[in-house]
Amino acid sequence: MSLPPVKQQSEQQLLAFKPGKRIWKVLNLSFRYSTLPFSIYGAAKAMAKVTSSVDGTGTVFALIIGNNNYRTTDVYRILQGAVNDARAFEKYLTDSRAQRGLQVPPSNIVVLENATRENIISTFKSHFLDNPNIPDHGKATMILFYAGHGTRITATGNRISTDSKVEAIAPVDERTTDSDGKYVHAIPDYTLGWLLWELSEKKGPNITVILDSCFSGGMGRNVGTARNGNSESPPVPPELDDYLWKGKSQDATIMAYHAWSPSATSHVLIAACRHNEKAYEFGYGDQDSIHGRFTKELITWLRRVPLEDTTYAELLNHLPVWPEQTPQCGGSRNDRLVFNGNYPAPATKQWALLLTLKTSDDPDARITQSFRVDIGTVEGVSPGTVFAIHAGDNSLCTLVADSVQVGHSILVAKNKQPVIIPEGARAVVRDWKNDAMVLHIHVPLAFPYISDLFPTTNITYQPQSRKYVQAQDLVTADIAVRTEGQEIVIDHLTGTMLECQHKARFSVDGNTGHLPAVVDGIAHFNYFLERHNASEWLEGVSLEMHRLVGKYPGRKPDRSVGIEGNMITNGAVHLTAQADAKYGFTLRNSSPVDLFPYLYFFDPEMYTIKCWYSPVSVRDAAPLKSSGVVTVGMGSERAFVFPATLPPDVPTSFSFLKLFVSTVPLDAKWIEQETSPFDPKFRFPIHQEPLKFSHTWCALKVIMTLTA
Q: Which helix (H) or strand (E) holds 94?
C-alpha cells in the first residue's frame, strides 16, 4: 500500500520548451515506507469594480495598485507611469465586450493609488478575504494588479535563495516610520504568498497576480529605466507579519509558500521580468501616456486574444522579450484559461501554430511556408508525426513534422507545397508515429471484460489509440489482469512496481467501459517511472532529502539527521512514521552546465503523478546553476509531510520521486497524472503520450522505507 504525503497538493507543471544544448538527466527517488503605498485617486478613490460574467469566469473582483509618489526619494525615484498602468488596467476591466474589455461592474474593483503598507494589506483582506460578495469556495475570478517599485530584502532563515534574500513589493511609505513610530518594511513575497494561499483556501484558487515591477536592486524606475529601488531594503525581522499565521494550524503553515514560487497552486503569477532583470516604463506620447511597457503590451494582447480559448502560458508567448526584461508566467495553473483558472484547457492538447518563412537568396524564388509548434522529441514527436490543423471548430488540413528538435518541430504540408492557414490556428497530434512504450497485458481466457479491453472492431480511427496490447503469454507480459470476487486485480510482472507494489485492486462498479482508460493510466505511470538512459550519464546532479527544523518562514535542514542533513544514503532513505515531521529537498548541480529541474511524486497506490517543483516560467533562466542548488520545501516554501502512522496491516509502503533535469526548459505537462485512473472521472488525455528521449539524460533510483 502507498500513502501519499499528507496535505500535499502539488500541482506544478512543466513549462514550455526552447531549443538549446540538449542534456537530460532523471533522478528517481523511490519511497518505501515499513506561499504596497496608497492613495485612492489622489486622496480617496477606493473604487471597486467587479464583473458581470465573463464567458465562463463568473463574477470578477480586482484589487489594482499603482504607486508613483514614494516618500523616500533618495531610495525610490518618483515614477510617472505606475498610476497610469493601474488606470489603464482598470479601464480594460470595465470596458464593454464590444471594446474587447471584460465589462466588470465598478462595484467589484478597488483601485489604490500611492498606497501605504497598511493600506495594501488591509484592503487585500477587506476586498478579498472578508468580502461577503465573494462566495466562499466558489468560482469567482480574483485579480491582484500591482505597478510600482520592487525590492529585495534579507529575510533571516530564508532558504529559497542562496543569498538569504526574498523579493518584495514596495509601498510608498517603505523605509519611513508609521504613526506609532515603527519602521515600515516592504511587503515580502512570503507575506503576499500567505495572503494568497489563505484567499485560495477560503474563496477558491481562481486568482491571477500581475506585477509590473522588478526586484533585483540597481537603478530606480524612471522613464526608460527600471522600477526598483537604488538599494536593497533593510533586513526584515523574523516576526514581521507573523500575526497573519501565528496560531494557525501546522497544516496551514505547511501549505504556505512565497508568492513567486514556481509550485504555487493558489494563483497564477504574470510578472514583468525575471527576478534579476528590470521592469521599464517609457513615454508613449504625452505625460499621461507614460506606461510600463509590460503593462502596455499585456493589455494590448488581453484585448486581442480570445480569452475563452487562451491559456496563461499561451498569452505569455504573445508578449515580446526585451533586452534586460523577459516577462514571466508561473504557478501550477498556468495551463488554465486566462481569468478562468477553475477550468483547464480542453483535454485534447493543442499547440499554437507559428508561421515560419524560408526564403532564397534568389529574389525570383518562391517563398515556401513551414510552421513551428513548441513540441519536439521529448514530447514524442518524430519525423513524420501527423498534425491536424484546426481554426475554431473547423478542420483545415494536415501537416507533418519535417524537422524535429528537443523543444520544437517544423511542420510542412505532405507535398511540401505552400498552404494558407489563418492566424490563431492550432495543431493537434493525429498520429505520433511513436511505439517507444507499449504495455503488454496478459488476460486469462475467462476474464469477463476482455471485450472491453480488446474490442474486436477496428479501433484505429478512434479519437485515441490505446497504449497497450495483449501479450501472448505471461513471459512476454508487463502486467496481468484478472478478477477476484467483485474486484479487478492487476499484477505487475516486471520493473520497479514488481519489487515495490506488485499488485493493485479496484472495482469498475459496473462501468466496464472505463477499463481501457484505467490501463492507459497505468501504462502512462509505468512508462515514466521506468525511464532511464543506458547510454549516457550526466555527472554532478544529485537529490538530497532533509528533515526540517525551525518555524515558518525559517525552516531549514536538521543537520543531525542523516549525513550532514542528507537522509539519502547509498540509494535509500529509511523513515519512521512520526507526527509533525516535515521534510524538504535540495537539488544540487556540480556539472558544468545550468539546468532546468522538474521534481515529481509518484503514488503507486493511486497511480498518480504530481509535480512538486518546476521552474517559474518557460522564459526564466535555468534555476539550477552550475555549482548551485535549488531548495524545495524550505524557508517560506511549504514543507512536505508524510504519514504519521501506518495501518496495522501495512508494515511498509512505497512511493517514488523522480527528478528530470535538462539544459532547456520543458513543456511536459503531460507527465503529470493528477487524477487516479481508478477514478470514474479520469480520462486519459490525448496529449499524454510516451516521451521519446533522444538526448543526454539519466536516471537514479532511491528507495525510501517508512516503518511504523
A: helix 82-94
DSSP 476-537: T-SEEEEEETTEEEEEE-SHHHHHH--EEEE--TT-GGGHHHHHHHHHHHHHHHT---SS--
| CB-CB contact of 118 with 111 (8 Å) | no
Whose cell is 479487478? That residue is 488
- Those residues whose C-beta lies under 8 Å from the C-beta of residue 125, and which sit 6 or more positions away, are 195
213 neighbors 146 (Cβ within 8 angstroms)? yes
CATH for 38-260+281-323 (3.40.50.1460, 3.40.50.2300, 3.40.190.10, 3.40.1000.10): 3.40.50.1460
Q: What is the grid cell recorded at 188?
A: 515580502
Domain boundaries, the chain: 24-35+532-707, 38-260+281-323, 351-431, 439-529
Q: Dig out the grid coordinates for 406 from the structure.
A: 528537443
Name 122's Cβ contacts closer than 8 Å, sequence gap at least 6: none
One fold for both 38-260+281-323 and 351-431?
A: no
* Separation of CA 183 from chain center: 36
Give pLDDT tens digits for 626-668.
999 999 888 777 788 877 677 887 788 888 888 888 887 776 6
Cβ(592)–Cβ(586) under 8 Å?
Answer: no
Cell numbers placing 531: 525511464
- Residue 30's beta-bridge partner residues? 656, 703
Question: For residue 235, which amino acid is it?
Answer: P
pLDDT in tens, 658-702: 888 888 777 667 788 888 998 888 875 544 443 444 344 555 556
**Given the C-alpha cell 473582483, which residue does it identify?**
61
DSSP result, 433-459:
---S--EEEE--TT-TTHHHHS-SS--
Phi and psi of 503, rounded to 5°? -150, 160
Which helix (DSSP H) or strand (DSSP E) does residue 629 occupy? strand 628-632
Supply φ then ψ for residue 49, to 5 degrees.
-140, 130
Per the DSSP assignment, residues forming a β-bridge with 387 are 399, 429
Cell of 671: 507527465
Type of residue found at 304: R
pLDDT tens per residue, range 258-313: 344 444 567 888 988 887 788 888 888 665 689 999 999 999 999 998 888 788 88
The answer to whether 63 touches 273, Cβ cutoff 8 Å, is no
DSSP secondary structure letter of residue 578: -
For residue 477, how many other CB atoms are within 10 A of its CB? 20
Tell me if 201 sits within 8 A of 214, measured CB to CB: no
Q: 3-state SS of 124-182?
A: HHHHHHCCCCCCCCCCCEEEEEEECCEEEEEECCCCCCCCCEEEEECCCCCCCECCCCC
CB 704, CB 31: distance < 8 Å: yes
The sign one gets for the Cα dihedral 473, 474, 476, 481 is positive
Fold of 351-431: Elongation Factor Tu (Ef-tu); domain 3 (2.40.30)
Contact predicate 59/108, CB 8 Å: yes
Q: What share of the chain is helix, strand, coil (3-state, %, to 5)?
A: 15, 30, 50
| Cβ 17 vs Cβ 667: under 8 Å | yes
Q: How far apart are CA 326 and CA 617, in angstroms?
A: 10
Q: Which of 118, 74, 75, 116 is nearest to 233 (CA)?
A: 75
Rounded distance between C-alpha atoms, residue 139 and residue 330, angstroms: 20
Task: Say which residues have a Cβ less than 8 Å from residue 491's Cβ, sequence separation at least 6.
Answer: 479, 480, 481, 482, 502, 503
